[in-house]
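Hey, resending since the last one bounced:
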Amino acid sequence: MRKINFLIITESFVYKTGLRFLLEEMSVTGKIHYSEDLSQIEKSNADYIFVDTGLPDVQDLYKQVRSGHAEGWPVLIALTHHRKDKNLLSSGLFRHSLDLSQPKSEILHSLVEITKNNFSPNKASVREEKLSEREKSILRFVALGYTNKEIAEKLFISMHTVITHRKNITRKLGIKTVSGLTVYAILNQLIDMNSMG
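The structure tokens again:
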């Protein structure tokens, strides 16, 4: 599976740390770099660049776009702390915006939507191919928030069997957290975002 590299441009420690935490939950994440100013945009080898719209030099980006200097740049994503600002997207500067005031599940959903274009539905992850049908069933329940006990009851198996399958899933995918498994399940179309509560 192709890994995606990110650059986060912000002076905010909270934005950097929170966004890094969410990106690390995604199995598609490669390298994550940081910058406190816009000087790294042209030098970056990132696929996606998150830009804090509160930075004082954001207006310089608009000038570069208007003058044609932005050609060949990676995908720019506006980091906002309010409901989506339609002006940001209509300016042509940012392809997406990410509202950091939303709950974790909404931000994860937005990240999945933003990055899913890097995946072809016909090319299932090599790692997913290794999962048995039973492991996929258990992964679906885990992603939907069921406990080990609830999964055991739903599938008419012992809790010990559920725990063993979960260990195998974690080992095969290399993903240890529930939110990471959830993102993996969404990206690999094992669950639908609409089925999540």
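The domain at 126-195 is CATH 1.10.10.10 (Arc Repressor Mutant, subunit A).

Sorry for the duplicate.
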